């Protein structure tokens, strides 16, 4: 055997000997336990300080609703603690869920990876290692519906007709009838969630049109908008919303007819003398007297 060949063989044997004597050390994944019903603030249990070698995502409960996809609206409740000491970093369960456009620019790379491709109704655990600006983080995300979910209700005759596109956005056709003279709240879908109480913050999707022309003047279903949240029953929205939505159930879709005086008042508002028609999907309700 030529000298060069003998050298190469000896080197390869030496490397193989060293590798065979090495035992791979498995990464220790410290457990995190998540308890609590879906839709309710979770309880996290883990040893502190938590050692996190790399990011990980775990589906605590699989969703059964539509899949959330890039560029679409996503509504989530989240709860996050520091892995160093278990201190609360942030949560939405005591206020209102957060609506985002599911893009990396809107939510960041880490949250995007946790939510993309999951289904509505899922509960997701995400554990992230420390960075230069943040401790290791343990977070739970509950993915909520962005449209009404429940039993369809046959509306009374003479009301506007509502049809939904594939995403749930309503299209409203005004009938050839006289406009109503009182507030009408007609459920189109009856959700199975709790009843709304005055003083709560509700999260909704809605579209509003005028009775005279059927023209849309406002909608959260537009490409550049997201579900909205605001107090109900305390005078912060048009009076007809307070009257028509309190005591409805979460998950419902409500057709609201607001004659002048119960919609947008004020002589300087071009809608002040209009009868307004809204279709409102009630997605969540938080806070209120019971929470206090």
Name of the top-level CATH class of the largest domain: Alpha Beta
CATH topology of the largest domain: Chitinase A, domain 3
Structural class call reads mainly beta
- What's the total helix number? 4
State the major sheet: 7 strands, antiparallel
What is the domain tally? 2
Question: What key attributes describe this structure?
Answer:
Chitinase A, domain 3, 17 strands, disordered N terminus, seven-stranded antiparallel sheet, six-stranded antiparallel sheet, mainly beta, 4 helices, 2 domains, 292 residues, elongated
Question: What can you see in these coordinates?
Answer:
The structure is a single chain. This protein is mainly beta. It folds into two domains: 33-144, Chitinase A, domain 3; 150-287, Chitinase A, domain 3 (Roll). The protein contains four helices and 17 strands. Strands 9, 12, 13, 14, 15, 16 and 17 form a seven-stranded antiparallel β-sheet that branches. Strands 3, 4, 5, 6, 7 and 8 form a six-stranded antiparallel β-sheet that branches. A two-stranded antiparallel ribbon has the order 1-2. β13 (200-210) and β14 (216-219) form a beta hairpin. The longest helix has 18 residues, at 3-20. It is elongated and about 70 Å long. Residues 2-25 have low confidence and may be disordered.
